[in-house]
Amino acid sequence: MDSEGDHGEEITFMSTPSNQTYALTIDGQAVRTAAMIDVRNPATGEVFAQAPAAGADDLDRAVAAASHAFEQWSRTPVAERKALLVKAARIIDDHADELAALFTREQGRPLPGAAAEIKGAAMWLKAGTMLDIPVEVTEDTATRRIEVHHVPLGVVCAIVPWNFPVLLAIWKIGPALLAGNTIVVKPSPFTPLTTLRIGELLADVFPPGVLNVICGGDELGPLMTAHKGFAKISFTGSTATGRRVMESAARDLKRITLELGGNDAAIVLPDVDVDAVAAQLFEGAFHNTAQVCVATKRLFIHEDIYDRLRDRLHQLAKDLPVGDGTQQGVRYGPVQNEPQYRRVVGLIEEARREGLTLLEGGAVPERGYFVPLTLVDNPPDDARVVTEEAFGPVLPLLKFSDIDDVVRRANDTEYGLAGAVWSADVEQAVAIAHRLDTGTVWINQNLQSTPFTPLAGAKQSGFGQENGLPGLLEFTRPKAIYIPKAGK
Ligand code: NAD
């Protein structure tokens, strides 16, 4: 996301040592496991490292350590907790070069974008400490005062996807720890290494057990959501998995926050300057090789400018370089993993079989999980490439002529994460924004978020919210204290 920040700094990149090994961080200790999982470089498809695979015993140890640490951490003055979070942010920032190189190898995103995510995560962690948890006073009369405090929940289970593995982990770690909880973080098995390395780097920053990082195979997530030691699950991932998480959490009524999938619409009105907006619209859809929860996934273009904008976007798809993210000048990397690659290729092949018009981008490397940046020229609204979240570089362009109709079409989805309206008439765009059933709407911009603004999916895009004070309060529960006044 843009909020990773463009820090305008010169970035130098190190290569990751090939003999580097990775460990879980449990109770402040590096923990190695007998079982391991292979980690592939999506730019080659080859295994380049192994990650530890935590089992039920490791999970139990992590939860026990976090539970023990909670007693002290929850009573640690908030200013001290904030100071340690700021220190953690500085350490991540200081290691940005090393972490970015590792990030690109496991995630595939070109190095500048990888560095932006690391630096953005550090910025986010630090900025979050500017938030204060309020004590609300709901009554203050001659006889009594009622205070509502927001107290920590206990041990938080954080489950993170592979598209923004570091930033999205920090979105959970920062507020969870600030509020006085302890945490066990699980990155995706497709992108575990950068998060494991951050766990190692921060092992001495927090008291043992406050921040634990574990990873493992497909069985680990369900083991975590079912674990009785967690008070809260903060999950980011697909809507399908989110439903399973909610079901599992229901058994013992764990608190949950779910940040899920999207099928975001951008609506482009006829008064835009096509040449000026084309590149922004393109990036809004294809950033991180279109693997962004809030990327534009359906681009509605007014019929008066449709052909011109379509041709400009197609030219960008042909011109912008796709390749190995370690190479200079590469703009877009591979799809992150093989199952996702097969899914995206399957969607494109199905569109081809259905006779839809595909506008393909430039050549891509043959090795690795590369897919040409692909536009679909005005497919019907019920084509699978329109109704499903592709989460990969295939974007349907959809023609419209009537505002009421395009608003209806934009809202005609189970999702409601974000959306965008593009127009020279900002007032008109805002009026349309109010009619979109989403948690966020951008006017003449996209992919923006800030540490102080909640991201909250509507409909099946989420449950609860992250970021801002409301996101911070999701890691707390209200506790009302009724205090009699002296002599009453
Ligand atoms: P995913 O749901 O497959 O996996 C997400 C995480 O959940 C991974 O760590 C995975 O190991 C774990 N997991 C898988 N099955 C589980 C289960 N049964 N119980 C518990 N954990 C389980 O998602 P993904 O493919 O990694 O990520 C892509 C999806 O994430 C897209 O739909 C995207 O839109 C969404 N996403 C949403 C946001 C947001 O803020 N709303 C942000 C980024 C990504």
From TrEMBL:
SUPFAM superfamilies: ALDH-like (SSF53720). Residues 35-481 form the Aldehyde dehydrogenase domain. PROSITE patterns: ALDEHYDE_DEHYDR_GLU. Coiled coil: none annotated. The keyword ATP-binding does not apply. The active site is at 259. Belongs to the aldehyde dehydrogenase family. This is NAD-dependent aldehyde dehydrogenase. It comes from Caulobacter vibrioides OR37.
